[in-house]
């Protein structure tokens, strides 16, 4: 039984504090954002007269009020508030500041605006036609693609359409800015990236970074949606606070949040594949096109990860992947759990399904035959990285057996021939997900560990807590290193005045980077404490500093080598326990001792006191950078990742022949997470990610008007999975894998990879539909999401044609 | 006459005037009382994060004699007059977590923690119900049903279901025992005996004790909104499309809570909630009760009224087609007296009914289907549970003869296919003349031209309706 989340006991009481739970200050103001309803237009006139007359209204600000109105994580191309031109419906134009939130909201409705519409680009195909791209296309290529394609006995061409996906974090974007003395700003934000929030706020306000502190206690969910896009809202609140010298709260409603903020990028991917009679892929050309929306945001990096995951679990000898990021007049799309990964993986999995269908083979056989393998050098990815610690074969083999795949497939085929009301499908898909930011410089972290006089510990890192339990894992690592109970430590709110220049808590890397840094900082202190403990063993207790320091009668204990400079969290550590030992001293159950002199054990908290009194530092800071990341974005070659998290899922679905409704009957997951720090928290990530992914591939349907204004902007219209949608049978197991030597304590990151396992639900839907007689020669065209309507249309295309 | 709203909050008596009475309960809890455990996410009753427990001692129907979870984000404080409320902030007893909370911690049912208070409340509501029935275990099905009104984006629900199943009910302390007392009951009954009027200029709230007073009030203030439970008006108010400033609530009129059957005639009073009605109809028309299972959330059903769902006249409301098929009548009271309108004459145009200013629906009534008849209700929504219909459909056939070869009478009604809930009169006539399903399908399609919108395309609606139509006859055929 693993320890619960470190704040589970306050979550269940409603005591955990989120941004909007902070007490309202007496002079606090509230703001709301007025946004565009046009896709692409010049702002002819904005009239605030009536709005300013509304009760409670204090002031209205526009983009002109910022020192610098442009921001952007990769390219600074996006205005915080549009001034003369809007590039998407939902783009912020003005901030209304009032004595209450409701007054701000009601005043916002009174703003009059006139536009001159410009021709918008509303789709990927339009963008392709008008050559509307963020940057030139990129390419990753290996082998002799065209020749191999010609030589392939069989070829297939196709397309996959993947729609967007709203994060639907329960807590919408939220910030409160407090003006401090001497022009400083303290901003409390629901942000995955406090450093960027600090920097965007400072830049927007024309302040040096030193005058802005960003504090993140926790988020009510993030999922990537608060990686870049928390920052502009923080800047808006900060602007108001600075101008009015009053605290200002900006907490978006769910509706406005969904309308204004970006989603998972839609993709439309084309492919051509050459393969042999047995289903082995010989050559593959995939052209990925993503919809970035109006601004770059993280879309180029997202595309890169899509390109790097188009192989998924398969060795493809000849492959060319291109990626083109389209600029459209939609909200600016952004990071979402899995980044580009799910779009690359869905594409290759559809290709595998189509190959299998054309060969009348069970897709699982085609998967196996193409799998990465250590045999015959089939372990090098298309970008040239050697795939180490490959568990894919074992994962598929084990899960296939555990879930009775073969037997169930036969049963389903019989069922589908006889049942009039339902149609069933089953699919087993793997995932291999690269862990590390593909942008090298982001793979760094730092941590501060403070041990207080009573032996209790505070840890500060750049990691932000959004439910994933990063802080629980970090404190478990630190306390286990010190031989303490987890309750002896507390991970503090993330603050940019404690940890600077940090990376976003993203790319599943939160625990890897920040945990490693915290562990390294802890070991610096541990080394000192170890030497001190060793020396104390030879000093009679009555002469210890706790008895004598005030009198100065005894000399101080001096340490020979109080410094430790190490970047590798596994170096010097016992592989099994993950703990490092110095001067042979053992830290266990609140005591420190030499294994040969257990009788002389010293209680940790007394050792700490002795350290203080002997002027031995009890605090330390460490920096950690992930080694060996050498990926050249321009050539598309190199070691992009430190290691790969892998897994596989088998999903069985039932489709209602009357309505097309999709019901997941059973899901079995087998996941390789190396050696976990906290197994139950990891499994919680797996179930959560899978269900979130299930929403993406089934019910979550973003619906826009012709101006790209989102109409499905609330849970009444945008349907994330409900408790009833959880599979009736839902088994999750972890693979035993003690061999991930690359990462801290042999763990593997878990945040994103299991989301991609939900692709098995989508392939299962297709598996069901393709069993209908009219698909004998074709593969169904069902987009992501496979909504009931899309499913029924594929099931009875003729009937739909009557009415279209 | 009172000029204050009275209720109990976590055991403490509250007497509130206009400022607080005009707030949504969630806002009052969070920003007036600093009880920030209750969260607001959607402000439309669709996610459950704002759930609180409410006991209403004045109607003790079978499903109502407990603290029930309701949505605080769309409920005006003034609507809670006479209630006893418990919020998540009060569940912990001294330092001891409630069993529900303990289970959520140990089974990892909470990740980011934002939806958690709502889940804890929904599950505590189930525990209260189970304790009142002296039951020992929570089943998977009960767990899921009780938390259908709550959304979680982190856990995938599996750990939450496991938490519910792990609860040992013999260890649970009843919230009702802890927070509700005889003294409270006496007080609330006394409070309930008096009408309320609050008028601050900005906010005018009136809750009469009699229908006569209600009609009189409407005569003087014709622009007053009648608030059933506000599950729709509360949303419109929150989305700032309107402002609830003049409101009348019928919650103090006891007889409007009646739901009864007399010789096959069912009467449903204006204050009867979906939860109560579902319970009442379960044995009488089992298919209707099943249909209500996928209607909204438990929280909404615990507050929302049947009559409100009809008066709201939404073309995608779930009960209008059902009541059309049941050939129900709407009983309307105005200052000129009572009038009775058949359901199919009640809906005039998009969100427009025959109700005129100054009138109130007091109840609806319908005959239970006769023996040799078939009635079924269908609903399609993009997500099966907790979703608004894209299409809903009901067919009611009285057969001529046991072989079901001839139709004596038939009513067909659907929602989501026109500006109002729609009856298919031509199809009905055609089938009565000649019971031929294929011919019926042709007539059916001719009687509606649905829109394409965010819930479904026009084509999908056509296909769906035909599929349900055919399904009905294949299900009921001998």
Structure, explained:
The complex is a heterodimer of chains A (804) and B (478). In chain A, 28% of the residues lie in helices and 24% in strands. With 804 residues, chain A is of the alpha+beta class. Chain A has three domains: 8-119 and 173-251, Aldehyde oxidase/xanthine dehydrogenase, a/b hammerhead (Aldehyde Oxidoreductase, domain 3), CATH 3.90.1170; 267-438 and 634-802, 2-Layer Sandwich (Aldehyde Oxidoreductase, domain 4), CATH 3.30.365.10; 444-625, Aldehyde Oxidoreductase, domain 4 (2-Layer Sandwich), CATH 3.30.365.10. In chain A, the strands form eight sheets. Chain A has an eight-stranded mixed beta sheet with strand order 3-7-1-14-11-12-13-22, sandwiched between helices. A five-stranded mixed beta sheet of chain A has the order 9-17-16-15-10, sandwiched between helices. The longest helix of chain A has 27 residues, at 510-536. The radius of gyration of chain A is 28 Å and the shape is globular. The two termini of chain A are 56 Å apart. The mean pLDDT of chain A is 97. Chain B is of the alpha+beta class and 478 residues long. Chain B folds into four domains: 5-89 and 179-249, Ubiquitin-like (UB roll), CATH 3.10.20.30; 94-172, DNA polymerase, domain 1 (Orthogonal Bundle); 254-367, Uridine Diphospho-n-acetylenolpyruvylglucosamine Reductase, domain 3 (2-Layer Sandwich); 373-476, Enolase-like, domain 1 (2-Layer Sandwich), CATH 3.30.390.50. Helices cover 34% and strands 21% of the residues of chain B. Chain B is built from 19 helices and 20 strands. Chain B has helices spanning 18-21, 25-32, 99-106, 116-132, 140-146, 158-166, 175-179, 182-192, 211-220, 233-238, 274-281, 286-293, 298-303, 306-311, 319-325, 343-346, 425-433, 437-446, 458-476; strands at 5-9, 12-16, 51-55, 68-71, 84-86, 196-199, 204-207, 225-227, 246-249, 259-262, 265-269, 329-334, 337-342, 347-349, 352-353, 360-367, 373-380, 391-399, 407-415, 422-423. In chain B, strand 8 (225-227), helix 10 (233-238) and strand 9 (246-249) form a beta-alpha-beta unit. In chain B, helix 11 (274-281) runs antiparallel to helix 12 (286-293), helix 17 (425-433) packs antiparallel against helix 18 (437-446) and helix 18 runs antiparallel to helix 19 (458-476).
């Amino acid at each position: 039984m693993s320890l619960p989340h470190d704040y589970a006991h306050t979550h269940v009481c409603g005591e955990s504090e989120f941004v909007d739970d902070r007490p309202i200050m007496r002079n606090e103001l509230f703001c709301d954002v007025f946004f565009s309803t046009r896709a692409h237009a010049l702002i002819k006139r904005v009239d605030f007269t009536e709005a300013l007359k509304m009760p409670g209204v204090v002031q209205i600000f526009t983009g002109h009020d910022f020192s610098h109105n442009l921001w952007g994580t990769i390219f600074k191309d996006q205005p915080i508030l549009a001034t003369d031109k809007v590039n998407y419906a939902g783009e912020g134009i003005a901030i209304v500041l009032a004595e209450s939130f409701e007054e701000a909201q009601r005043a916002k409705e009174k703003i009059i605006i006139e536009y001159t519409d410009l021709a918008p680009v509303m789709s990927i195909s339009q963008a392709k036609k008008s050559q509307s791209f963020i940057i030139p296309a990129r390419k990753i290529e290996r082998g002799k693609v065209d020749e191999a394609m010609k030589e392939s006995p069989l070829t297939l061409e196709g397309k996959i359409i993947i729609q967007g996906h709203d994060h639907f974090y329960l807590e919408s974007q939220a910030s409160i800015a407090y003006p401090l003395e001497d022009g400083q700003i303290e901003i409390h934000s629901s942000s995955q990236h406090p450093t960027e929030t600090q920097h965007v706020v400072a830049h927007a306000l024309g302040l040096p970074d030193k005058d802005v502190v960003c504090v993140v206690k926790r988020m009510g969910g993030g999922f990537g949606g608060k990686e870049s896009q928390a920052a502009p809202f923080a800047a808006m609140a900060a602007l108001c606070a600075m101008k009015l010298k009053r605290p200002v709260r900006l907490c978006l409603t769910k509706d406005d949040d969904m309308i204004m903020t970006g989603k998972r990028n839609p993709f439309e991917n084309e492919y051509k594949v050459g393969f042999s009679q047995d289903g082995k892929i010989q050559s593959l050309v995939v052209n990925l096109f993503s919809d970035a929306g109006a601004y770059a945001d993280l879309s180029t990096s997202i595309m890169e990860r899509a390109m790097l995951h188009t192989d998924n679990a398969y060795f493809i000898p000849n492959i060319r992947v291109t990626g083109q990021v389209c600029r459209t007049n939609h909200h600016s799309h952004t990071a979402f759990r899995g980044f580009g990964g799910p779009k690359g993986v869905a594409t290759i999995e559809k290709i595998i399904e189509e190959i299998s269908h054309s060969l009348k083979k069970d897709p699982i056989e085609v998967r196996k035959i193409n799998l990465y393998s250590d045999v015959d050098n089939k372990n090098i990815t298309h970008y040239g990285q050697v795939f180490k610690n490959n568990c894919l074969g074992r994962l598929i083999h084990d899960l296939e057996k555990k879930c009775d795949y073969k037997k169930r497939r036969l049963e389903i085929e019989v069922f589908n021939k006889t049942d009039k009301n339902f149609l069933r499908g089953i699919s087993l898909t793997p995932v291999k997900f690269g862990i590390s930011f593909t942008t090298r410089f982001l793979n760094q972290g730092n941590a501060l560990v403070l041990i207080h006089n009573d032996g209790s510990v505070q840890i500060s890192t750049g990691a932000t807590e959004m439910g994933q339990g990063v802080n629980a894992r970090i404190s478990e690592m630190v306390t286990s290193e010190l031989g303490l109970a987890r309750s002896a430590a507390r991970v503090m709110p993330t603050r940019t005045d404690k940890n600077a220049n940090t990376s976003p808590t993203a790319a599943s890397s939160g625990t890897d980077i920040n945990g490693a840094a915290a562990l390294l900082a802890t070991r610096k202190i541990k080394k000192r404490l170890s030497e001190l403990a060793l020396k104390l063993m030879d000093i009679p207790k009555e002469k210890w500093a706790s008895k004598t320091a005030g009198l100065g009668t005894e000399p101080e204990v001096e340490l020979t080598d109080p410094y430790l400079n190490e970047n590798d969290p596994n170096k010097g550590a016992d592989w099994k326990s993950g703990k490092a030992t110095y001067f042979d001293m053992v830290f266990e159950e609140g005591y420190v001792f030499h294994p040969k002199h257990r009788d002389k054990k010293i209680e940790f908290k007394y050792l700490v006191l002795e350290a203080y009194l002997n002027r031995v530092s009890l605090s330390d800071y460490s920096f950690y950078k992930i080694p060996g990341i050498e990926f050249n974005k321009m050539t598309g070659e190199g070691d992009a990742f430190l290691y790969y998290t892998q897994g596989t899922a088998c999903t069985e679905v039932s489709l209602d022949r009357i309505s097309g409704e999709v019901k997941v009957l059973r899901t079995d997951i087998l996941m390789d997470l190396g050696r976990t720090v906290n197994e139950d928290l990891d499994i919680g990530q797996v179930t959560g990610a899978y269900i979130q992914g299930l929403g993406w591939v089934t019910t979550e349907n973003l619906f826009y008007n012709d101006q790209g204004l989102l109409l499905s902007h609330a849970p009444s219209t945008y349907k994330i999975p409900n408790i009833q949608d959880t599979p009736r049978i839902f088994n999750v197991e972890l693979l035993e894998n003690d061999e991930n030597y690359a990462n801290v304590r042999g763990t593997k990151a878990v945040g994103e990879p299991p989301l991609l396992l939900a692709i098995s639900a989508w392939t299962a839907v297709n598996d069901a539909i393709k069993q209908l007689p009219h698909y004998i020669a074709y593969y169904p065209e069902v987009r992501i999401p496979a909504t009931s309507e899309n499913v029924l249309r594929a099931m009875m295309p003729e009937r739909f044609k009557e009415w279209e | 006459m009172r000029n204050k709203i009275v209720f109990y909050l976590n055991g403490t008596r509250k007497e509130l005037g206009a400022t607080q009475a005009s707030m949504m309960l969630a806002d009052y809890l969070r920003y007036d009382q600093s009880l920030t455990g209750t969260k607001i996410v959607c402000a439309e009753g669709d996610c459950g994060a704002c759930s609180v427990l409410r006991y209403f001692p004045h109607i003790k129907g079978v499903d109502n004699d407990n603290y029930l979870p309701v949505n605080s984000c769309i409920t005006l404080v003034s609507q809670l007059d006479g209630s006893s409320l418990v919020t998540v902030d009060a569940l912990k007893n001294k330092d001891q977590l409630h069993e529900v909370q303990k289970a959520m911690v140990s089974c990892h049912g909470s990740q980011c923690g934002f939806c958690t208070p709502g889940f804890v409340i929904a599950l505590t509501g189930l525990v209260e119900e189970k304790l009142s029935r002296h039951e020992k275990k929570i089943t998977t099905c009960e767990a899921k049903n009780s938390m259908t009104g709550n959304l979680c984006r982190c856990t995938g629900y599996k750990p939450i279901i496991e938490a519910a199943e792990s609860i040992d009910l013999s260890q649970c302390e009843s919230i009702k025992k802890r927070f509700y007392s005889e003294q409270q009951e006496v007080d609330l009954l006394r409070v309930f005996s008096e009408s309320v009027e609050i008028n601050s200029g900005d906010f005018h709230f009136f809750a009469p004790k009699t229908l006569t007073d209600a009609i009189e009030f409407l005569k003087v203030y014709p622009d007053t909104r009648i608030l059933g439970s506000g599950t729709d008006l509360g949303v419109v108010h929150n989305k700032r499309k309107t402002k609830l400033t003049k409101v009348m609530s019928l919650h103090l009129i006891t007889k409007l809570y009646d739901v009864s059957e007399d010789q096959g005639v069912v009467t449903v009073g204006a204050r009867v909630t979906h939860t109560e009605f579902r319970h009442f109809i379960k044995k009488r028309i089992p298919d209707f009760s099943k249909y209500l299972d996928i209607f909204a959330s438990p929280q909404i059903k615990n507050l929302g009224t049947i009559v409100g769902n009809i008066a709201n006249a939404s073309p995608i409301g779930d009960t209008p087609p059902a009541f059309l098929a049941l050939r129900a009548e709407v009983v309307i009271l105005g200052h000129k007296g009572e009038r009775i309108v058949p359901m199919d004459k009640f809906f005039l145009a998009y969100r427009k009914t025959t109700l005129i200013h100054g009138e109130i629906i007091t109840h609806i009534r319908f005959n239970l289907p006769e023996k040799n008849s078939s009635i079924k209700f269908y609903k399609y929504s993009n997500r099966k549970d907790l979703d608004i219909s894209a299409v809903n459909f009901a067919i009611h056939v009285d057969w001529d003869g046991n072989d079901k070869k001839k139709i004596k009478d038939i009513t067909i009604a659907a929602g989501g296919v026109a500006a109002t809930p729609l009856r298919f009169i031509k199809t009905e006539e055609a089938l009565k003349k000649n019971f031929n399903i294929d011919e019926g399908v042709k007539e059916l399609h001719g009687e509606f031209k649905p829109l394409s919108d965010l819930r479904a395309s026009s084509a999908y609606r056509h296909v769906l309706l035909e599929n349900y139509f055919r399904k009905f006859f294949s299900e009921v055929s001998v």
